[in-house]
């Protein structure tokens, strides 16, 4: 159905087609718009904020078919203390997310990978892009278990939450999924990462990515201690790097 005119949700998402997608017993709403190669854009904590939706629209305007899954929070609600805390707690306790576990793939990434495969079947082409941000940043890497994902973008990947040195290095992949991802990267599938250099939420993950993926991991980094490279603390150089990466891989 087309989004109508209900308060903040409908204002921010006007023109997006709302649907739902089910895989392996998990169902989430999705919002789709655009034409061209496919990109799955996964929102960050606290949810599908106006800034995240605006970035999705920018991808649409650039010529992509964008699907935004709604995983938590209220679509269109601005970032605030209440919804940030609520989403953080959900990430810690939900079986879908495994925000605290080491060497484990979040179950929701299987659903996201299936969503990517469904989008690829719909739009065709060499594959689809996947953009994760913050809490969902590493999800784009885990989605590479589906061969349809050929352009993974990790924007400030922050899970598992880096409360310990081991967690700050962890990529959020089970040993089996880690091997699949490394094999795909070694076969020529590059990975793009973005972060602020002093962002504590990312921990030491970029060093792990360099060690594990080698020259097929490209890091785009910005000075400072801010966090949301594509939304709240948007960096134009980062946005342009993402667009160029998607263009190169998907067109």
If you had to describe this structure to a student in words, what would you say it looks like?
The chain is α/β, with parallel strands linked by helices and 251 residues long. The protein has one domain: Rossmann fold (3-Layer(aba) Sandwich). Helix content is 37%, strand content 20%. The protein contains nine helices and eight strands. The protein has helices spanning 7-12, 50-61, 81-93, 108-123, 139-142, 165-169, 175-186, 205-213, 236-250, and strands spanning 17-23, 26-33, 38-42, 65-70, 128-133, 149-155, 191-196, 217-222. Strands 1-2-4-3-5-6-7-8 form an eight-stranded mixed β-sheet, sandwiched between helices. It is globular and about 45 Å long. The model is unreliable at 1-8 (pLDDT under 50). GO terms for molecular function: hydrolase activity. Keywords: Hydrolase. Residues 36-228 form the Dienelactone hydrolase domain. This is Dienelactone hydrolase.
